[in-house]
């Protein structure tokens, strides 16, 4: 609380549907029941997710105090946030002050539209946000409030309320705040979530234990990589699991062999660790490419149905239907066929030959009997994947990339760092996959291949620019411009959101 005017200023940052308004009402009710003067306002904003709303509360023991309607930078005592990038937005706006502000934030993420539509890895750097939060706030509490809410089958507003009370910033006892929730019964989910979060905040050891469990899952590292950095061992272990899940143990062993090839090429160069981590990560994603069999398999997994059920909040006894929209192309059919059949299909497609069902939209209910077994039949093509056309095409491209990565790691680490990023342009399926493959082939032919017989380092800038351009927009206009002129201006995503009028 501000020592000069004894007014407590609280700023809440939440997303639509998280119960931010309810949380505000709880705080206001608790303040009034404890005979404090209180005022609250909300500012709904235009966001890239589900609506970003700020709630501002001023609490004072002075009944005659004039309370403000909007928060002022560097004059907020408590910032309470439901999501990590909302926290970053609050810090960017100047509301978190190192000599004043108690910052309470959930470490969970709700990805913005800008992050999800990015053709590469568009996620904001969560560890960097946490690091800044710890340094910028006077007192900082970070824990997964979303997970605590899910564990107790309640909304994040209840765990945010518990975190606020547990931080000790409110000028009345914790039990006075808890009474507000008892109107729903002493066994209500809101109370359970509140109590769990209150306990976590009051015992720092529990907070640290919770962070360790959520941020660093237990991973049994593979043997043979003991001399590698922990981060690299973790990536290789996860990549090994992914490639086994994609095909089988033999395919996972092939991934490990390829990783060792890259590590040996680096010749124990510790400065190459970041490049090796990225290369091994991209290699795993590339080897587990999304062909028709893979997509069908993922769409019919029990874990997917359960995730959809939770996200849609489907209750027991309610019926829900999942309808998939498929639009098969000749390329996707040819990809999963044995190589000689796939090549014939592609030749016919190039000549403009007709195929049944090709290019027509099809709706399939994946959690219905017919639709489910149709997709499972498509997933069964996994068992002949090694004979398929796309498998041969992908393995040839991977081996070509590996050979160039090996040379670059030995001769030009800076070029290797850029080349490790090149598989980022290969992603998705259908039209997205075809555009990515076109960009990959052009970059290989026009930049990487010529560089192999020249000064690799001199081509690093061009390679990085081409990759960034290929990921800049879906239609590859920026990429085509870069390949013609060598220049492009790419606008980075922003955290800013414009608020609407206050209410």
UniProtKB/TrEMBL annotation:
Residues 16-171 form the Pyruvate/ketoisovalerate oxidoreductase catalytic domain. InterPro entries: DUF6537 (IPR046667), IorB_Oxidoreductase (IPR052198), Pyrv/ketoisovalerate_OxRed_cat (IPR019752), Pyrv_flavodox_OxRed_cen (IPR002869). The keyword Oxidoreductase applies. Residues 232-445 form the DUF6537 domain. Keywords: Oxidoreductase. It comes from the Bacteria. This is Indolepyruvate oxidoreductase. It comes from Paramylibacter ulvae. The lineage of its organism: Bacteria, Pseudomonadati, Pseudomonadota, Alphaproteobacteria, Rhodobacterales.
